[in-house]
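Give me the 3D structure for Baseplate J/gp47 family protein.
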Amino acid sequence: MYESMTYEVILKRMMDRVPNGLDKREGSLIYTALSAAAAEMQIVYIEFDTILKETFAQTASRENLIRRAAERGLKPTEATRAVLKAVAVPDTVLINKGERFRYGTYYYTVTESMGDGTFQVVCEKAGVEGNHQFGRLIPVQNISGLTSMEITELLIPGEDAIDTEVFRKNYFDSFEKKSYGGNKQDYIEKTNGIAGVGATKVTRAWDGPSTVKLTILDSDCNKASDLLVQTVQNIMDPEETASGDGLSPIDHRVTVVSAEAVLIQISTDLEINENYTLEALKELINKAVEDYLKEIRTSWESMGDYGCIVRISQLESKILSIEGIYDIKNTKINGKPVNLELNPYQIPVIGGVKIDP
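Predicted structure for Baseplate J/gp47 family protein (357 residues):
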């Protein structure tokens, strides 16, 4: 707004107000005094622009956006730590809570025994990085009788702190979407606010009056683990008693389940450029299919009462965009040459790609 208020403009305006009979040449007393004042005034106008920008949520920096959003009871979600399953050999070894292990540059702490030599471990580094580390752990301190300890499964994904632009969108969405006392939006906001939850669908009266079913995905848009489902259940309505002891309103009997993962097996015929081999392209093809299926899973919540559709045309387009693939035909999904329509509580997960060159 004040971009035009430069040092030169301000100085000229000030000099124009000085009577012509006085010495206004550069180096004169008047010029020296006014030029110093003009430089300071330019700084003031720059600060005016900054204040104006930081006043409105649309242009505010993260720090001041948080302050503005706090007026509506909103706050950004912080980064959370991944919870994983680790298996000890032998399964009778005694490992206490608080024991620490290392995998590469990452450290993990044992939080709970799951029985039969399996343990819950928490990555000490918050964020999504902890979701993708699997392998053999090294104990920080010697544990008598332990032969090996290996991370085998992600139970609750860690999440990064919410991105500034996503939080800005949430702020403006709060004016349009009203959450109140157990309405649909209230359930979605509260459930998605639980660490590890990435999407939620709400089904009312699914098992009679005053029953609510929450179908969830984890924050990686995958099927939620049993631990995550139980964690959300305990927070929303412990033991499904409708007692109001959780976040759900009293007399709302809430049941939490995960969306069903449906394996998607793709078969197709490809014509490959003579400069490429199928073996070299397989990894790219699998990634293209997985990326497409993840796009579908990401939009699962916004589909509402409609189910996801895995489209042959989209699959062929993704695969055909890979350099080295000349043509594609006879694509089938789970053995059928038609689009696959899922119900509202199912998500597609890659089950394999069969290619006939």
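Residues 54 and 61 are 6 Å apart (CA to CA). Let me know if you want a second pass.
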